[in-house]
Amino acid sequence: MSVESGYNRLYWESSLGIIQALIELYPSVDVDSVGIEQLRQWIIALPNFADDPDLANDGILNDILREWYEEVTS
Q1: How far apart, in whole angstroms, are the C-alpha atoms of residue 66 and residue 36?
Q2: How far is residue 68's CA from residue 22's CA, in Å, rounded to a whole number?
Q3: pLDDT by residue (tens digit) across 20-41?
Q4: DSSP secondary-structure letter at 10?
Q5: What is the average pLDDT across 34-52?
Q6: Percent of the chain at pLDDT exceeding 90
Q7: Which residues, other chains included, contact 30 with Cβ-Cβ below 8 Å and sequence gap of 6+?
Q8: Which residue range forms the structural domain that includes residue 43?
Q9: Does the residue 4 lie in any domain?
């Protein structure tokens, strides 16, 4: 799946799709160094992100960050 693909819209609850897009765009990033606000900015900048940026909260962002970490370290 290409990040530029218009077929799969990403919403805050689409954590796996968001994580896959982040891995594609930032393959060598140290996930431990990513802060919550930086993560939020990266997500809302994704080409397929279609949700309201104001709906994000620390819980959602921390969950995505934890799942991203688990995905790249497993």
Answers
A1: 11
A2: 8
A3: 999 999 999 999 999 999 999 9
A4: B
A5: 96
A6: 88
A7: none
A8: 15-73
A9: no
What average pLDDT is seen over the chain? 91
Assess if residue 2 is contained within a domain: no
**φ, ψ at 26 (rounded to 5°):** -130, 65
Query: Which CATH number does the domain housing residue 27 bear?
Result: 1.10.10.600
Domain count along the chain = 1
DSSP three-state, residue 37:
helix
What are the C-alpha distances in Å from 65 to residues 5, 9, 14, 69, 71?
Answer: 23, 19, 13, 6, 10
Q: What pTM was estimated for this model as a whole?
A: 0.86
Q: How far apart are CA 36 and CA 55, in angstroms?
A: 14
| Structural domain includes residue 57 | yes
CA 34 to CA 48: how far, in whole Å?
A: 21
Residue 60 lies in a domain: yes
